């Protein structure tokens, strides 16, 4: 990791103090820091960067306090989160948390604005107010959009924040060394399609090896894979591993006339006049063509050039439904202007989605702690981020609390589950239903299971992991008469729905059918024996 000049100065300063002061008495001399040519703002940021190297150990917290004292907004917000959850304290201190975040918001910190928006939306530690929540989430989303705004938005990555309960041993991990080996093997095969797939996977790495990717794409194009030309155009348009060259980019885009990425790239060149005469009409034609091939970025760019607001809104909505952050932001602005009672909540939902597209260091750190099997630290990091309203942080914190934290608090876990379920966590909703079932609150359990199977917000790519068990438990409750009249026919129907979603339930259902047949046979024999006994 390469440090900026302020960080390097503080690292040297810290090491000198440790060497000259073996007893660990450590103090910050601002005059000495300024002698090195650092201003207060740079020094605060440097202390914060140092604190993140080993957060949350004792030394990192000391560095964090130094950054807070110097008014660093990142440090202020992190300290606010720590006060909110009672990190290293017996009880949370919401008042101090709010005070620190006020300073962070004033300095333009998006996560602090999200925290205030989340509290105002649900009334957590603040008066519930849709208007206030809207203002805070709009502010956070605006800050995020400013970082996303880019003339060349090729291959815009979505932050990867996995839900821990949904991970499986079969989940693929793109190990860099394995990809390098596959890249080497693919070159021997001279299979353009295979080489191109490896190049795409390498581009998805946190720190792509652009030179190697460029070599693979050149080989793939030479071996007849047309789409590789589109990606070579992207490389030159972005300056990834090569000198930025719009003319070269255009040449490669033209070599892939029926590729969505290539058509989109040509549209951008015409829209912004990069080494070509600016022509919005030509750009729109290229964006239309790419849109027909399902290119989401092209759908958004086409909307920005349309003169009809009604048509533009349709295109923004289509791109937003496919996860495009900029389109979601523009759509939220339009929805906010609509004279509709529900416009406030709709706009908040959209602004929140945009704000959560930011790169989040704490979420990345929490994931790395989990991978390193440091589960307690991972739990606390997810707890901190949960205060900002991230559903995935609530879900993961609840899961870790149950499995890995000694003396877990049921109250805290239920709070996390309720908040996660409210935002569409299928895992959390299933756990809440199980909790009601375990406590024999069968009416509440049936409502919770039914809610999980019927609400669209729980429909995710991993929904089967939660919805199938919900159907199974509903079937069992109808079979046994828990909270509802016994109804074997209804139970069987629910069991079949469970097996249709997830095949692992098929075998137990077959066993259930045999069980019912044996029960009926036994009941018939008993009735027959009783009848014979009465006749005798």
TrEMBL record:
The record ties this protein, via InterPro entries, to: Sel1-like (IPR006597), Sel1_AlgK (IPR050767), TPR-like_helical_dom_sf (IPR011990)
Q: Which GO terms describe its cellular component?
A: endoplasmic reticulum membrane
Q: Which UniProt keywords apply?
A: Signal
Signal recorded as keyword:
yes
Annotated Pfam families: Sel1 (PF08238)
Cross-referenced SUPFAM superfamilies: HCP-like
- Signal peptide, first to last residue: 1-27
**GO BP, sorted A to Z:** ERAD pathway
Q: Which family does it belong to?
A: Belongs to the sel-1 family.
Name-wise, this protein is Uncharacterized protein
Record organism: Aphanomyces euteiches
